[in-house]
Each structure stands twice: as structure tokens, then as C-alpha cells.
Amino acid sequence: MSDNSTTPEAIPLYVKHDKVYPREIHGRFARLRAIAAWVLLGLFYVLPWINLDGTQIVLFDLPNRQFHFFGLTLWPQDLFILSLLLALAAFTLFFFTALAGRLWCGYACPQTVWTEVFLWMERVTEGTRNQRMKLDQGPWNRKKVVRKSSKQFLWIVFALWTGFTFVGFFVPIRDLAVRIPSFELGGWETFWLFFYGFATYGNAGYLREQVCKYMCPYARFQSAMFDADSLIISYDIDRGEPRGGRRRDADPAELGLGDCIDCKACVQVCPTGIDIREGLQIECIACAACIDVCDEVMDKMDYPRGLIRYTTDNAIEGKPTRVLRPRIFIYLFVLLALMTLIGSILTNRDPLIGDVLRDRTSLYRVIGSELENSYRLKLSNRTEQTLAVEVSASGLQGLRVVEPTQPFTIDPGQSGDFALTLALPLDAADPGMLPVTVTATSPEGDTYQAIETRFYVPSNPN
After folding, report:
1. How do residues 290-346 score in pLDDT, each as one tens digit?
2. How confident is the model at residue 456 (pLDDT cuts 50, 70, 90)?
3. Which of 120, 182, 289, 372 has the fewest CB atoms within 10 Å, i.e. the most exposed one?
4. Which residues contact 306 (CB under 8 A, 6 or more apart)?
């Protein structure tokens, strides 16, 4: 009996990565990406050099526990505001992804932006796509060494400048620039300068699309935010197929062909090296380069634009598309609520925050004709000025502050722990734990903080 079974084909666990040589393209989406890159890179490289009232406009001053944002100073006590800002950023990403797909990946992601810069330097030194491919395939000669060395020099200088700027968000950048020539940088400053520079060099120079395809988690969970009404970049199969080459003056209907001439230009310009004609793929970063080049080809063939375009699954299937749908309104509502909450917190933020803790070692003591309770008063200055503070107490007739000595000061961004003693005349109140209010004010009478606590009156103080 013959064995008709066939040996299953072996599937390799590792396939060598083929370098992607994206072709340069011009068009409306390419211009939008260039504008976005200029704006984002400008913010990154310029903001640290701008000072406001003598303070760097954006500075994460970790040693002094200060976070400066455009004239606003946040302290460790304000970390909940940072949490709200991160939530705002997350829901902004969800909103725009549900509305228009992977706009973040194609236009604003640091990996995309810096890769564009490194590709531009590669084009300047090594030439067009075909010239780069030919150069890599050719032997090492003087021309190749000069071009490759020029590219590496630009990459390294730009990467180190990026690392320097990154450290400049955590250390005053003007001071950093003065200390670099004399090799006076600290160990951590040196480490992060070279680490971030190396990360930029490796990710944007060499890994490029591999970061998007294999390392970035966003591509994996983005599908949970898509629906049939989300804008995606798609190839119109009904219009384009069957694809095939033809002369410009040929009638595709007579040849039984669709509008796609199978020029593969959309593949050549793709920074991740995918073929958009195979459908939506997680590797697609929605940069729209394939739209620009396809429209250019359609213009040359005198065909209508839009063979590859921003559209929705419903539109492709001929169904009505709803841009404004429940999830959009939910995301928008959450965004507006978060922005309102953050704005309200920042507008009404107290310059001084505090707490009053009872001294548990002694509930009370009798001093002469008065009954005293002891506390710990904790106050934190959330401003950049030294605050003079006076403490008063209210809530019971005859209640007064014995200590601290009035007034006292708290330095900018510092916290103070003070002994607080309140005194009440004997027989001035009924026994029990009675509510009182401790108020911290300025010498001019402006209220910083009003703190509720309890004053203990025993049934028999003697």
C-alpha cells in the first residue's frame, strides 16, 4: 500500500529582516507630517531654552522636587494633578483613534518623528531610494565610505544633541551647556545623555519600522478602539482589482482590469514596508504616504483619485457611515470633564496645605485656669515665595493658640512640622470631643488653610 501523505512544509522560527528603503513622496499628507514634525521637534528642542521669570519654562527639577510648567509650579503633593494629566492624554488618544484611526502613530509619535529626521539625513548623504539600495549592494569603495561616514556623523551628532536636550528637561539646560565643555557633568547626567542619545540613534536610525511592528504595544490594542465607522487607510478592492500594467491611453474596461496598475509605488513609500492592498494591518502607522503616491499615479493615468484613501469599513461596503456615534460622545464628555476638573484644581489651588494631628501621648493637661490640648501642625508651601504664617483657632468661646510663636515662615516648596497647643478656660465648654477650626493666615489676614480638628474636654479636668 503506497503512502500518499506529504511531508509538512517547515516554517522557520526566524526570518532575516529585509531592510526597508522608503521612497520620498510629496503630497498633502506629506506636508501635514512635515508640519507636525517641525512643530513637535521645535517644542522639544526649543522649550528648555526659554526662561520665564528666571525659571526654565519646562523643568522637572527632581532634586528640589519642583515641576515647572509654563509658569505653574507643581510639588510632590500635586502628583494627583499629574495623574489627571496622564488620564487626559490617554482619553485624548482614545478619542482621536476612535475618530480617525492611528493619527498618533502617523503624525505625532516620537518614533515616527525622529525616524523621519534620520531618513532625511540618510537621503541627504546617500541619495534617493534607488541610490541607497545600489550603494548598500555595491562593494566598499571610497564613495561608499564617504557617504556612510557622513551619514553616521550626522546621526551621532543629532542623537547626542537629542540626549543633551532630554537631560535639559531635568537639569537647567543653560547650566548643563556651560558644564559640558569642562567635563563637569555628574554621573547620572552623563548616563542619561548617552543612554537617550543611543536610544534615539538605535530606534530611529536602525530599528525604525521594527519598533512599530514588534515592540510598540499600541498596534496590538488599537483594534479595540476601532469600529466600522473609524477612519482607516484602505485600498478600494472593487475599483482596483484585478490589477495589472497597461499603457496610459489604454481602456482598463476593455482589458478587464481595475484602476490599480500594480506599480507597487504604495509599497515603495511605506515606512514599514507593507502592501496596503492586502488590507488593514497592525504594521500600518497611518502615515498616508500610500495615499499621496497613489493619487500621484492616478493623476498621471487620468484616473480619479482615491483608489487608496481615508475611509471606513462601512463606506467601503456601501453602508452609511456615522462619524458622530456614542463612543465619540463618551470620550468627548470624559475629555471635557477632565479638562474642567484640572482647570478648576489649578485655578483654586491653595498656596498652603496642611493637617492637624492630635498628640496621642497626652489627651489634655491643666495649666493654671486653662485646659490645654497638644497637636502637630503640618504645613506645606506650594508656591515659589516664602510665606509668613499666623495660626488662629475658633469654634469654642475663649479658645486661643499658645504656640507656635506668631508669625513663622515656610520656605518655597518646603514643609514644616510645628508643635501646636490650644488653650481653653476651665468650665468654658461641656465635656467631650468638641469640633474646632485651626486657621492658617497671612499677616495681612488672607486665609491659606482652615483645618477641622477636635478639642478634648474631660468631665473632671481636676
Report:
1. 999 999 999 999 999 999 999 988 888 888 888 788 888 999 999 999 999 998 888
2. very high
3. 182
4. 236, 295, 298
- The answer to whether the predicted template modeling score (pTM) of the entire model surpasses 0.70 is yes
CA angle 412, 417, 421 (to 5 degrees): 130
For 311, half-sphere exposure in the C-beta direction (CA atoms, 13 angstrom radius) is 19
Task: Note the pLDDT tens digit of each residue in 111-147.
Answer: 999 999 999 999 999 999 999 999 999 999 999 999 9
Say if residues 266 and 277 touch (Cβ distance below 8 Å): yes
| pLDDT at residue 10, rounded to an integer | 64
3-state secondary structure 210-235: HHHHHHCCHHHHHHHHCCCCCCEEEE
Q: Which amino acid is at 8?
A: P
H helix or E strand, kind and range, residue 343: helix 326-347
Cβ neighbours around 349 below 10 Å, total:
14
Contacts of residue 276, defined as CB under 8 A and 6 or more positions apart, other chains included, come to 233, 234, 235, 266, 267, 270, 284, 290, 308
Residue 71 gets the label, from left (phi > 0), alpha (psi -120 to 50) or beta, of left
Written as nine digits, the cell of 28 is 498633502
Give the DSSP letter of residue 388.
E
CA distance 167 to 331: 34
Is residue 197 within 8 A of residue 159, CB to CB? The reply is: yes
- Directed axis angle between helix 110-126 and helix 142-167, to 10°? 150
> Is the predicted pLDDT of residue 8 greater than 70, yes or no?
no
Q: Is the peptide bond before 404 cis (omega within 30 degrees of 0)?
A: yes
* pLDDT computed for residue 2 by the predictor: 47
Q: Which domains does the chain have, with CATH numbers?
A: 16-349 (no CATH), 352-457 (2.60.40.10)
Query: Which residues of 75-122 form beta strands (DSSP E)?
Result: none
